[in-house]
Amino acid sequence: MSTSPEPGRSPHDVGEVRPVRRAVCPGSFDPVTNGHLDIIERAAHLYDEVVVAVFVNQSKSSLFSVEERREMLLEATAAYGNVSIDTFHGLVVDYCRHHGIPVIVKGLRAVSDFDYELQMAQMNRGLAGVDTLFMPTNPEYSFLASSLVKEIAKWGGDVSSLVPANVLKRLTERAASAE
Ligand code: PNS
Question: pTM of the full predicted structure?
Answer without folding.
Answer: 0.90
